[in-house]
Predict the structure.
Amino acid sequence: MINDDLKLTGHVSIALNDKVVQEIPNLVVTAGKNWVADRMADSNTVMTHMAVGTGSSAASASDTTLGSESARGALTSTTVTNNEIQYVETFAAGTATAALTEAGIFDAASSGDMLARTVFSVVNKSANDSLTITWTITVS
C-alpha cells in the first residue's frame, strides 16, 4: 500500500545571548499549508520574515497573525537540506525588547502569509540582549 500523506512539522530553538533557553515544537497553520500548495505552482513569494510577540493564546491551525506582535525582522538565513528547511533570525540588542511568548514565520515585512506559529514560556529579552530563533520545518 502506498502512503501519500504529506506532513509538515517543525521544531524551534530559542537562544538568548547565544545560549539555548528553549526548544519547542511549532504548528504549521492552515494558511501555511495553503501557501506551500500555492508555492508548488510558483504562485507565491518565499518566506522572508520572522516575528515575535507577547500573545499567549495557544497556537491554532486557523492562526494568520501573532496574538500581539512586538517585532518582525528579515530572516538572517534560510537553508534547505533534503526534506528540511531552516529559517534563522536574530533580533539584535534594542529590538523586540519584551517578555516574549510567541513567534511566527511570514512572507512579508508586514501582514503577509503566516507559515507557522509557536507559543512558548516567557523569554525576557532586555535592551542589551540578542535573541536568535532557529526554526526547522520538516516535510515528511
User: Anything to note?
Assistant: The mean pLDDT is 91. The longest strand covers residues 114-125.
